[in-house]
Design a protein that fits this description.
disordered N terminus; four-stranded antiparallel beta sheet; single chain
């Protein structure tokens, strides 16, 4: 690991006040029409959105929201795939007819029971929430980026040396883009070209800026870490950022894209090194990501999410806290030196020490190296750099010569049960730090 005595973490570690992450916004001023519409909500409708966000939906006549429909997926009596698509389509069409011209479809997520709508009146918003086919409504929130020498710590040289390198798998990177022209990815001239190119697809999901990556190259560094951990896995770069933020609707659209293209590329994991300003010490089941992540896991795709860089030791960021997400915090990979960020500082660090900036709580799943990680020619620090170590490890475990038929739970069990127990001294929570070679031994590999 190479890092300076006072390492700058701009672009990865996002400053965030610990108290503000849990605070509810101030009351909104509502006009008479808005108050009347809000008053028309039934008891069931009021539970379809987070309590402190309900007034926000009526604060302005026009509001863009993510709509989740009632769905049979996950039920033992769920219909087959074709019937599921037909039922979802019927529900979406029916709601469209009932809302009329006061609601506009912005986007439809064909592989999910969700859509993105623009509500043009308080009446339409109330009708949306009262509709029996609507399960939940989510505001379109902003998520910020949470920003190869670590490989020995997680045992990857042994796995790679034994021939386990993620053959036949693909990992999707939902980030700022991916500069596939770099040598780390095969110096590609375009996705899939030349034949040595490891990036099989790259697409603008959010605003089409037509750039391989934005100025920070955050997504390129994240993808480079996955490429180093799993030297033969393929990569997909999905640019979900507009400026410095990734909006919830674009993230749902990206997850929908991953599910739709799972079979085409054999996508086994997707990495989200980003998060909103809210945190939770328990599963945040009311998150916009709950249903997308559940559908991804049902398709065999593991969502890996950075825990956040706010130095909060009583919770992890959204969507890392979402049920179905594999949340990842950061540790140092070598001893010595110090680190200073806008939120905290560490001195005299040791290997496997949890970084001061890494959000953690009892609901954190895993730890991985995240301080001064160099990949694809870029050095960055943050839980953003920890989560791709896990995404790459999943690709190795799911490789064609490893355990490609493992279920999602079996793959995660291999990582969690063999990880080194590490205590975050700031809160006393013990979390497993991944050890890929130890995980490979569950497949019958000899000790190094």
């Amino acid at each position: 690991m190479r890092w300076s005595r006072q390492l700058s973490v701009v672009g990865c570690v996002v400053a965030m006040a610990a108290g503000a992450a849990h605070a509810e916004p101030e009351k909104f001023k509502l006009d008479d029409v808005a108050r009347a519409a809000l008053g028309s909500l039934g008891d069931v409708a009021r539970h379809k959105v987070k309590r402190w966000q309900t007034e926000a939906l009526f604060a302005t006549p026009t509001n863009d929201v993510i709509v989740e429909y009632q769905d049979e997926v996950g039920n033992d009596k769920a219909p087959d795939r074709k019937e599921t698509r037909e039922r979802r389509g019927a529900r979406k069409h029916g709601l469209r007819q009932r809302l009329g011209s006061d609601a506009e479809d912005i986007d439809d997520y064909e592989s999910l029971p969700m859509s993105f709508k623009r509500m043009r009146s308080h009446r339409a918003m109330a009708a949306l929430l009262n509709d029996p086919d609507v399960k939940a409504v989510y505001p379109n929130e902003a998520h910020k980026a949470l920003g190869a020498q670590a490989l020995p710590l997680i045992g990857q040289p042994y796995a790679a040396g034994a021939g386990f390198q993620g053959e036949g798998t693909t990992v999707a990177v939902l980030d700022s883009g991916l500069d596939y022209s770099r040598a780390a990815f095969g110096s590609c001239t375009a996705p899939g070209k030349p034949s040595t190119c490891r990036v099989v697809a790259a697409q603008d999901i959010a605003f089409p800026d037509f750039l391989r990556d934005r100025g920070s190259y955050h997504g390129t560094n994240v993808a480079g870490i996955i490429a180093a951990v799993a030297p033969k896995t393929k990569l997909i770069g999905l640019d979900v950022f507009t400026g410095d933020s990734a909006m919830s609707a674009d993230l749902v659209k990206a997850v929908n894209w991953v599910i739709t293209n799972k079979a085409k590329y054999n996508i086994v994991a997707m990495n989200l090194s980003l998060g909103a300003s809210t945190t939770s010490a328990t599963d945040c089941a009311s998150s916009w990501a709950t249903t997308p992540f559940a559908n991804a896991r049902a398709a065999g795709i593991i969502p890996v999410v950075a825990s956040g860089n706010s130095a909060i030791k009583t919770g992890i960021s959204v969507p890392a806290c979402t049920p179905g997400a594999v949340s990842v915090g950061a540790v140092y990979d070598t001893a010595g030196g110090s680190l200073s960020t806008s939120t905290c500082s560490d001195t005299g660090v040791t290997a496997d020490q949890v970084t001061c900036f890494s959000n953690s709580a009892a609901n954190l799943d895993l730890l991985a190296p995240g301080a001064g990680i160099t990949a694809a020619g870029i050095t960055m620090t943050g839980t953003s750099q920890a989560s791709p170590h896990v995404a790459g490890a999943i690709a190795v475990l799911k490789g064609s010569n490893a355990a490609p038929n493992d279920t999602v739970d079996q793959t995660l069990s291999r990582l969690k049960s063999t990880g080194k127990p590490v205590t975050d001294t700031k809160n006393g929570v013990v979390i497993p730090r991944i050890d890929l070679w130890q995980a490979m031994q569950t497949l019958g590999q000899p000790a190094p």
